Amino acid sequence: MKICIAQTKPIKGDIQKNIENHIKLIVLSIQNSADIIVFPELSLTGYEPELVEELATTENDKRFDEFQKISDSSKIIIGFGLPTKNEVGICISMILFQPNKPRITYSKEYLHPGEEKYFVSGKNSPPITFESNKLAFAICYETSIPEHSEKAFKNGANIYIASVLNSINGVDKDINRISGIAKKYQMTTVMANLVGKSGEYDCAGKSSIWNNKGLLIRQLDNTNEGIAIFDTESDNPEKKTVTYKLNRNND
């Protein structure tokens, strides 16, 4: 399985422009035969808690139909982050698009202290299956909750995918923790992070991929948008892992 992580710099509150930039990276991942591409936490809006009332939407938003078309035609799983609304309030969520299947909303259950002011605790979705793999997901602070990764392991996951916003001050601590999850549970583990300024945070990049022994296979830099792709079936993952930078000339 080829897993792709995307590192992005969201434009504050501009869902349509962020959609366009997401699609550029998705196309690049498809050109390199990725089976899944996952974006960072709140990648379609940026981490902008004061704007969530106006930005929150649902998985059925018509603006997202293009992602489903791409998923269906190219047989790729796509996961991106945004605030979603339900009958209780607004959640920090990831929308998952699978080829010719209904969309899934994975919502952050364990909120970071302070997020309760703007968001409500959501519902995690169980791992999804791709061929012989089981993929479990996490959104940022959830990786710091031992019960979360333990539950993923007990549910049979062999791949753990973290969609995060990590700041310059906190990223190395989180990298150590997530690599520890990979080693402890022998799960291939990835982390997709933002770069640039988002909300009050200076985002650190360093989106990373670890093998199921907890060894770092690939890490993006701390400033550029781009992707990294890891082939879980490769006998020589260092040669089978590729990275690309995205150049934007219109921002």
Automatic annotation (TrEMBL):
GO molecular function term, any single one: N-carbamoylputrescine amidase activity
Lineage: Bacteria, Pseudomonadati, Bacteroidota, Flavobacteriia, Flavobacteriales
Record-linked InterPro entries: Aliph_Amidase/BUP, C-N_Hydrolase, C-N_Hydrolase_sf
Protein's GO biological process: putrescine biosynthetic process from arginine
Domain CN hydrolase as annotated: residue spans: 1-234
Protein's UniProt name: Carbon-nitrogen hydrolase family protein
Coiled coil: none
UniProt keywords, alphabetically: Hydrolase
